[in-house]
Amino acid sequence: MQMHIRRNLITFAAVLVLAISGLAQTDKPMLFRSPTMNKTDIVFVFAGDLWNVPRSGGAAERLTSGTGAEGNPKFSPDGNWVAFTGEYDGNVDVFVIPATGGEPRRITYHPGADNVIGWTPDGRSVIFLSNRATGMPVPKMYTMPVSGEGLPTELPFPIAGGAASFSPDGSHLAYMPLAQAFAQWKFYRGGRTTKIWIGDMSDSSVVEIPRQNSNDFTPVWMGDKVYFLSDRNGKNVTVYSYDTKTKKVAEAFANTGLDVKTASAGPDGLVFEQFGAINIYNPGSGKTNKVNISLSGDLPQVRTRYEKVAQRVQNVAISPTGARAVFEARGEILSVPVEKGNARNLTNTPGVADRDPAWSPDGKRIAYFSDESGEYALHLREQTGMGEVRKISLGSPSSYFYSPKFSPDSKKILFTDKRLNLWYLDLEKGTPVKVDTNTYENPQSVLDPNWSPDNKWIVYTKQLRNRLCAVFVYSLDSGKS
User: Fold this and answer.
1) 14 contacts 330 by C-beta, under 8 angstroms
2) For 223, left (φ over 0), alpha (ψ -120 to 50), or beta?
3) Strand order in the sheet with 412-417
4) pLDDT, tens digit (0-9, with 9 covering 90-100), for 266-317
5) Backbone angles phi, psi at 138, to 5 degrees
6) How confident is the model at residue 380 (pLDDT cuts 50, 70, 90)?
7) CB-based contacts of 241: which residues, under 8 Å, 6+ apart?
8) DSSP 66
């Protein structure tokens, strides 16, 4: 059966119509990433390529156009070169390119991944991360001459996990000993919280920037201060500074918006990314300003095209008769025959994320979650793909929902959400009913609900206060567990 389904999936190609238009308009949200800055220009990442724009803003021009992804751009201290991580030759290596544009030159050749994190103060070498000497996913820091001649030099610190920045005199290095953990887990406070160490190049001793178990990352050394990103305020990620003379940490500027994602030093300022936009912070005035960028390009990634989805399927459901299967793939819900019949795209909704299909036990309907309206709702449609889609709002506050499951009589659906809640929905009434809430947040699912054969009970697991799980049953008649 699996072989037949796979064969039908391989022959099925979903048409992707990616709704990205009006790229030259600055009033639409974009996703400009990882900016770096010299005296006159900003280089940033967009759509897997490097782009260049004046610091004053304006029209961006493409700096690279490799078939693989390019990222982590870093201007040299004199502003004449940009080092970046590239995939030009089928491997992840360090490349350099003139700031004015030109042919990228590869300077590392190890078969493992080499990722750019900065420059030495004299501008002669690029700093990069590599696990070439460990054989494990625990990288170390190296420098490689910009000329590409010779072999990399290992920096005198045992492990590293991210961005690094030398002091102006090259005697010390601010770096992350651990990689960022759980970037999607807001205000994580477990054993993998990230820290910033200031290492002495002469004896490899380190001093940690003071913190209270916060996530500190992306150090940038400017003058006597190390600027870095942190979630220590408990509200969002913003820019802080550590004064190497007074040993005090202070918030660089008040951030009332969303998280600051990346930051890099440049002459007279700090350039950073926030909500896909690029901003410049001036330490002298304490002010920030947004860089207005317009971007026009051929962007082949967003053209309408056919895409094979056999390797991208997830969240599988089998029809009650076993004649068909339904899958989620690239935001579409696809119904595929085991042996005979046609493959069907039940949603065909470009620019919409349709997720988690479930097949009703009576075989008539498919249920799934869709963000078509801007917030996730429950959608139901005939398994044939014909007729109108029924759309049921899941109420406020908005959330992210998981694993719809029909009751045996096909009249109700249960599901969970990201706020640890368990819900059920009577399809006739159309109003979600909360069953219970788990006691603790976990990186994996805990509730694991299911229906009783008579449709009158929901069984699930829930953590007690001692964090051990117990089995609960919920009565739909009494509304109690």
Assistant:
1) yes
2) left
3) 401-406, 412-417, 421-426, 432-437
4) 998 999 999 999 999 999 999 999 999 998 877 777 777 787 888 888 899 9
5) -130, 90
6) very high
7) 225, 226, 227, 228, 249, 250, 252, 283
8) -
Strands 81-86, 313-318: pairing is unpaired
Q: Which helix (H) or strand (E) holds 2?
A: helix 2-11
Two structure tokens written together for 480: 């109690």
pLDDT digits (tens, 9 = 90+) for 40-82: 999 999 999 999 999 999 999 999 987 888 999 999 999 999 9
pTM (two decimals): 0.73
* Cβ contacts of 2 within 8 Å, gap of 6 or more: none
State the sign of the Cα–Cα–Cα–Cα dihedral 109, 112, 117, 120.
negative
Nearest to 75 by CA among 23, 31, 112, 40: 40
> ∠35-41-46 over CA atoms, to 5°?
40
Decide: 168 and 121 in contact? Cβ < 8 Å.
Answer: yes
The DSSP call for residue 438 is -
Q: CB-hemisphere CA count at 13 Å for 51?
A: 24
Tokens read off for 229: 């990103």
* Burial class, 149, CB count within 10 angstroms (exposed 0-12 / middle 13-18 / buried 19+): exposed
